[in-house]
Specification:
heterodimer; A: 464 residues; alpha+beta; Heat Shock Protein 90; six-stranded mixed sheet; five-stranded mixed sheet; rod-shaped; B: 223 residues; alpha/beta; five-stranded parallel sheet; elongated
């Protein structure tokens, strides 16, 4: 398997695995056949040896009786006879027949000395010519006849080899054939993958439409589905990015037009100092507004690109609101607005401090910006153990239902006679709230008559 | 020349009003679509500068409503909507000119003068009536090739009369041309200015049609 991992190509891996398995199975089968066949063969041939020995004993016993009858006449020793060799296998088998210690019959290849030391049963011996023999020794019933029947062991091996060759040779021929057929099959099976990679390679970088391939096998289908889902997400992201850029460019035109126009008015004011001063002040105000717009745009853009991977920590909303309110109090004072904060206890939530600060600042800034001079803005933070609620109420004109519905549309500005918002504050508030699963609701303030905005987060216990 | 400016952005609107006034336009400024439609419909304005992203009623809707009511006041659309389809839509809905923010104040002035000139069938930028010549861009008047020094009001009055050659303008119509909102109209101002014009140019140049108004005679060169 380690070896397989080194192979980069799926095709090579599959093929190697397949051929390895086939060889292994075949070799296993051959081993089994070898063991089984050699057992059977040994039994069979040992049987033959025993049979031959029995025959020789019976035959020698017959001759012995005749000879003993004849012996009574001339007392001559029976002559030594060499059995003729009748078959090409004959040199592989040998036998000796002794009668009362005298060698009376033998095959041509058998020596004169007894083939084995054992006088009964099977034994394996090495003869003088260094060949291994399987020898069966037997004695006649009266003990005067001793017979040795032997067979060369390598002849048994030759038979076994012949049997095994029958099993192994086809494998040798079949392996290359199997490799070719396997290669073709795997190649054919992987065709959809190649098709997919081709379809992807031929794509323009900005082509994000889904991949359409016909007759996909069920293994490749999930890949294509996942790819298409990815394309869809990227497309949505690119579209949102494009819309954002277009919106931003569009939205910057007005502040720039204001700067240019006021600068030209200042240039053309001639001796009218009051007009020139006014135009220059307006130019500065327009620059400030453009800066604010760019900052808001950058915040929103960062929020949108960071997605849901925004950092999380423990934030005390009460303390945070206090800091933001302190920052904005001076501006409120300059417009005689009354900003009051009611945040008695700690109110911890799980969020990022910086982003939550941006959210709070936008809410408070909106309330102050769109309320008239001398208006009241009440901010409260409450924590009931389960959720933390931030409430911003003002005594401004409030919003109609239609206007509330359009809040949070990028760059939507409620008509304010001389208010210079970016139209992005709500988009930012909504976006940050969404990142931390906070609920934002907008309604009419019962106490102050203006707008009432509530943001609810899930509370985090103070201990953890 | 009295212009209606419809722009919801406070700083830009303030600047446009001041800049156009520097160029001799009488400018009234409204900040929402409904007011723009209402004011342009009065016919008191010789042209209008219309932002499209107006609260309460979108500029394009205003334009469409005006043209449906057969109000022909030239409208210059001044907007941040910069795509070609948006421009085409604006012009097709009845805009006489389509200008993208930011715009040069003097170019805006020139475009407005051009719109007014064309609306009155004038071809040249200099208005001519016999020996009398009026250059709106340079705000200069000459009679028998001699420059004539006129006050702002006298110039505007003469400009209105020259644009309406062959027609009679009532005193009220002339007053509306001369004064933007918030400017005090003296009760006999038009009579006084006409009197001065007659003295500076020629006595019979501006004719009084009793009970109806004033009209410009074809001023043949002095003999």
């Amino acid at each position: 398997m380690v070896l397989l991992r080194h192979l980069k190509s799926l095709q090579a891996r599959l093929l190697t695995l397949l051929l390895m398995l086939v060889t292994l199975v075949w070799l296993g089968a051959a081993g089994f056949i070898w063991a089984d066949a050699s057992d059977e063969l040994d039994e069979l041939l040992d049987g033959h040896l025993a049979q031959s020995a029995a025959l020789l004993i019976v035959q020698q016993a017959g001759q012995g009786n005749e000879a003993s009858r004849a012996d009574k006449g001339d007392e001559e020793d029976a002559p030594l006879a060499d059995a003729p060799s009748l078959h090409k296998y004959a040199p592989r088998v040998a036998f000796q027949v002794f009668h009362e210690g005298q060698l009376t019959l033998r095959s041509a290849n058998a020596g004169t000395a007894p083939m084995a030391r054992k006088t009964r049963g099977f034994s394996t011996v090495q003869l003088s010519d260094h060949s291994d023999w399987r020898v069966f020794a037997a004695q006649g019933s009266e003990g005067d006849i001793q017979v040795f029947v032997g067979e060369r062991i390598d002849s048994r091996d030759a038979i076994l080899w012949a049997v095994l060759k029958g099993v192994l040779m086809p494998l040798l021929y079949a392996l290359p054939l199997l490799a070719v057929v396997g290669w073709l099959a795997v190649r054919n099976g992987l065709a959809p993958l190649r098709q997919l990679s081709q379809a992807l390679a031929q794509r323009q970088p900005n082509a994000l439409e889904p991949v359409v391939l016909n007759d996909l096998p069920s293994e490749v289908e999930p890949v294509v589905h996942a790819l298409n889902a990815l394309f869809e997400r990227i497309q949505a992201m690119v579209a949102s990015e494009r819309r954002f850029t277009a919106d931003a460019a569009h939205e910057l035109r007005t502040p720039i037009a204001a700067i240019r126009t006021q600068a030209q008015v200042a240039l053309g004011a001639g001796s009218d100092n009051a007009q020139r001063d006014h135009a220059l002040h307006c130019t500065l105000a327009a620059c400030d507004r453009a800066t604010h717009l760019v900052e808001q745009l950058l915040t929103l853009s960062r929020l949108e690109s960071s997605g849901d991977g925004a950092p999380v920590g423990r934030v005390d909303v009460a303390a945070l609101v206090q800091r933001v309110a302190a920052d904005l109090a001076l501006t409120a004072l300059a417009r005689a607005q009354e900003l009051s904060l009611d945040a008695p206890g700690k109110a911890y939530i799980q969020a990022d401090e910086m982003l939550t600060g941006v959210l709070v600042r936008n809410l408070l800034d909106n309330a102050l910006r769109y309320s008239p001079d001398g208006a009241r803005v009440d901010v409260s933070v409450t924590c009931d153990g389960k959720q933390v609620q931030l409430r911003v109420e003002d005594s401004g004109a409030g919003l109609s239902e239609a206007e509330v519905a359009r809040l949070g549309e990028r760059f939507y500005r409620v008509l304010g006679s001389d208010k210079t918002g970016s139209g992005l504050g709500w988009s930012i508030v909504r976006r940050i709230a969404a990142v931390y699963q906070a609920r934002v609701s907008v309604g009419r303030s019962e106490r102050l008559g203006g707008l009432c905005v509530r943001v609810c987060w899930a509370a985090q216990s103070a201990r953890s | 020349m009295r212009i209606l400016l419809a722009e919801d952005d406070a700083i830009l609107g303030d600047g446009l009003r001041a800049g156009l006034r520097q160029q001799g336009f009488q400018v009234d400024w409204v900040r929402d679509g409904l007011a723009a439609e209402r004011e342009i419909s009065t016919g008191d304005y010789q042209a209008a500068v219309l932002d499209l992203g107006l609260p309460q009623k979108d500029g394009l809707d205003v334009l469409q409503a005006l043209r449906a009511k057969r109000i022909a006041t030239p409208v210059l659309v001044l907007t941040a909507r910069d795509t070609v389809p948006e421009r085409i839509k604006g012009l097709d809905l009845g805009a006489d000119d389509y200008v993208l923010k930011p715009v040069d104040l003097y170019e805006l002035g020139a475009r407005l003068r051009s719109l007014v000139r064309r609306a009155h069938g004038q071809i040249q930028d200099v208005l001519t009536c016999g020996a009398l010549q009026l250059n709106p861009a340079a705000r200069q008047v000459s009679f028998n090739n001699e420059p004539v020094a006129l006050s702002t009001r006298e110039f505007d009055l003469l400009h209105a009369l020259m644009l309406a050659q062959g027609r009679i303008l009532s005193r009220e119509q002339l007053e509306q041309q001369l004064y933007s909102w918030g400017q005090e109209v003296e009760s006999n101002a038009v009579e006084v200015h006409i009197h001065h014009l007659r003295k500076k140019l020629r006595a019979d140049l501006i004719q009084t049609v009793r009970g109806v108004g004033y009209t410009l005679q074809n001023a043949s060169p002095a003999t």
